[in-house]
Design brief:
11 strands, 21 helices, Beta Polymerase, domain 2, Hydrophobic Seed Protein, alpha+beta, disordered N terminus, single chain, two-stranded antiparallel ribbon, seven-stranded mixed sheet, 4 domains, 420 residues
Length: 420
């Protein structure tokens, strides 16, 4: 009977992954840390998660650990869980053909060398043995079959083996190259970059959902401006967004704060690329929604940002108080103001100063209405255009500070024709 072992409840992600490696090694298997976690440790970064690669088969992995989920057993991938921690454990493999340009049609369990050879980039194809430590390598021994250590030292992203073959297997690797090069601050190997340019148009065959997910990862990272620049350089912007040209620049993306909502980045990128905004915002948002498989909420916020930027550039500072507050309360206004502040800094300063003034008025920018539709119904009024217009007049008076209490609002309602 197999005796399951697992780390104590307070173990870190690395401790948990190392315990998995030790358990596999104790049972006679080869096992290493693999992929991005190795790369990030060597770069002095904190890995987001840890992956383990082993010669143990999925059924063997499931037998050795008490809580597993064979989500990708067909591809040799098993999730091992303990408490709130999860580590992906994959069997060394070679891949068959990629007829859908996404996943291999078949896999064959293999050796560490062959597993490294099927990965995307050399810096992602490194293994680390956390058990074999030494004073020179206190975190473990590096196993490198593809020259990844040299590329890591040179800050170069290079495809494993033939770059055309790697990209033909999965065209999304072109976008991943732009994102990783930006995130890591790396250059892309000339041969790999040339292959990406040759294959750029083939991104049209990748599902829009996968493209959208990859673009979100780019835009939510502080290096989003560099990622957009790499996309231009590699000829990917036109393929992804359907714009008429590349090299649109990324000045706004570069200048935005590090931590922002994805929709803000989308709005800034659209302006960087010269996309239509203002009255044409709806058509731009609809097209980007289709190209990036945006959710309804994302597309709606992008449209609002592109509409409101035009409003802020032209009229907003001259509007009456109530109209200013209504616009400022719209979803997307904060994103539009943030983009404006880097697009037109002097105007942005005026906008934020005015926002502060509006926020300091009684009730602030978006107070709860002093009179609602329920009150009008209780007075015998029926919903309709006049009903809606009356509510808007009453709320405008509240936003402008003309009424500040429910009693004052009811008195104004009677003046406007509501039965007492």
């Amino acid at each position: 009977m197999t005796r399951h072992t697992h780390p104590p409840p307070d173990a870190s992600n690395r401790d948990f992954a190392e315990r998995i490696v030790r358990t596999l090694r104790d049972r006679g298997h080869t096992a290493y840390f693999a992929g991005g976690c190795v790369r990030d440790e060597l770069l002095g970064r904190d890995p987001e998660d840890y992956d383990v690669a082993t010669d143990a088969t999925p059924d063997r992995i499931a037998a050795l650990f008490p809580r597993t989920n064979e989500v990708g057993a067909h591809f040799g991938v098993v999730l091992v869980r303990h408490a709130n921690r999860t580590v992906e454990v994959a069997t060394f493999r070679t891949d068959g053909s990629y007829s859908d340009k996404r996943r291999p049609d078949s896999v064959t369990f293999s050796t560490p060398q062959e597993d490294a050879a099927r990965r995307d980039f050399t810096v992602n194809a490194l293994f680390l043995d956390p058990v074999d430590t030494s004073p020179a390598h206190p975190r473990g021994r590096i196993v490198d079959f593809v020259g990844g250590m040299e590329d890591l030292a040179r800050n170069v992203l290079r495809a494993v083996g033939d770059p055309d073959q790697r990209l033909a297997e999965d065209h999304l690797r072109a976008l991943r190259a732009a994102r990783l090069a930006a995130k890591l601050g790396f250059e892309i190997d000339p041969g790999t970059a040339a292959a990406i340019r040759r294959h750029a148009a083939e991104l049209s065959g990748v599902s829009r959902e996968r493209i959208g997910d990859e673009v979100r990862k780019m835009l939510t990272h502080p290096a989003r401006g560099r990622a957009a620049t790499w996309m231009d350089t590699l000829g990917l912007t036109a393929a992804v967004l359907g714009v008429s040209r590349d090299a649109g620049g990324a000045a706004l993306l570069h200048a935005l704060p590090a931590e922002i909502r994805p929709s803000w980045a989308l709005g800034a990128w659209a302006l960087d690329l010269g996309e239509a905004y203002g009255e044409s915002a709806a058509s731009t948002a609809a097209r980007w929604r289709e190209r990036l498989c945006l959710s309804n909420a994302e597309a709606s916020e992008l449209r609002a940002i592109l509409e409101l930027i035009s409003v802020l550039e032209q009229d907003w500072l001259r509007w009456p108080i109530a109209k200013q507050k209504r616009a400022a309360a719209r979803h997307g206004f904060d994103g539009a103001a943030a983009i404006l502040s880097v697009r037109l800094p002097a105007l942005g300063h005026e906008v934020f100063a005015r926002l502060a003034e509006l926020a300091a008025t009684p009730g602030g920018i978006s107070p709860a209405p002093l009179i609602t539709g329920d009150y009008l119904v209780s007075k015998g009024m029926k919903p309709g255009p006049a009903f809606k217009g009356l509510l808007e007049r009453l709320y405008d008076a509240q936003l402008e500070g003309a009424v500040t209490t429910p009693e004052a609002a009811r008195a104004l309602a009677e003046t406007l024709g509501v039965p007492s």
